[in-house]
């Protein structure tokens, strides 16, 4: 059956399989997938631009259906997926398979199913007589940094038409989400003074210091729990601080020269949790430096921010919220516990919501899946969008 002969939902299922077949784990290139999408867009007569990263091994893509004017809607999804290593998949993760109503494969729900629906809808978008454009925005590195869309975002309103609203298709079971926490990641590195452990008092241990710093972060984390969530919408209802990995030392009987640990902060909207944590940790680091490190040149403590993903703050009555609630036939929004690129769109001045097919609980899991009924609900949403933007 050719693409032309397929129904939109059949086309969406077929395209989900085509997209899943590309192994686009964040550590790998996504160019094979982008090449495929560009070929599909050419067949559909849809103009697009590619925005490669600095290394040239990844790219974002921006396509426009309808008139190239301001005031349209952008549908955004990321092309990268999380790794499958160490997970107990029952079949090849990069071959989509169907079991009843479920479509299984890495990225099926997060979020190649949404991208497939957007592409499958193009023939309907083209015949809808759009007075305002629908844009499809595919990014990279969402699972690691959320920096993939920044280059194209900077061009909106200049080289590219500026949309009036953005819908980011992360899995929400087609509910409209208007808020998520920010995520800021850090690495703290300690350089100590190495010596035999029998002479502990003549050195300074990087491992001991890292443990003290970690304990201080946990204490600060308890303060964030006590502060809570002013909106009362998140689960858990507070900002969270988590230490994910620590590495250091050489042997049990050597005072450690080096130690580092990676940690993250997830902040609820409306609180400057990052500033609070950075200030308190800096003060405690200075105290430790004065107490233990002053006599040892070349030693020290450094905390470096790695990635800062902005949160998504509610914008009641925004064009994105109003439109998405109407298309979803809903009367209220939700908050989601995960971060997304929606905060980047909002930071760029584009009102944004999250609304996409599937459940986030299935993302990142072995035998990840999306239900065909969820894709169908997304198709209905898109058909409503075409009517809204029609002439």
Protein topology:
Layout: H1 8-20, H2 31-44, E1 48-52, E2 59-65, E3 73-78, E4 97-99, E5 102-104, H3 108-120, H4 122-126, E6 134-139, H5 150-155, E7 165-168, E8 177-180, E9 182-191, E10 195-196, H6 206-227, E11 240-248, E12 254-255, E13 258-267, H7 273-293, E14 300-309, H8 319-328, E15 334-336, H9 342-347, E16 352-354, E17 369-371, H10 372-388
Helix pairs in contact: 1-3, 1-10, 3-10, 6-7, 8-10
- Average predicted local confidence, pLDDT: 95
CATH superfamily of the largest domain: Zn peptidases
What is the beta-strand fraction?
15-25%
Number of strands: 17
CATH topology of the largest domain: Aminopeptidase
Structural class based on helices, strands and sheet pairing: alpha/beta
Radius of gyration: 24 Å
Task: Note the run of SSEs as H and E.
Answer: HHEEEEEHHEHEEEEHEEEHEHEHEEH
Count of separate structural domains: 2
CATH architecture call of the largest domain? 3-Layer(aba) Sandwich
Largest β-sheet summary: 6 strands, mixed
Describe the structure.
- The chain is α/β, with parallel strands linked by helices and 391 residues long.
- It has 10 helices and 17 strands.
- It has 2 domains: 249 residues, Zn peptidases (Aminopeptidase, 3-Layer(aba) Sandwich), CATH 3.40.630.10; 128 residues, 2-Layer Sandwich (Alpha-Beta Plaits), CATH 3.30.70.360.
- The two termini are 32 Å apart.
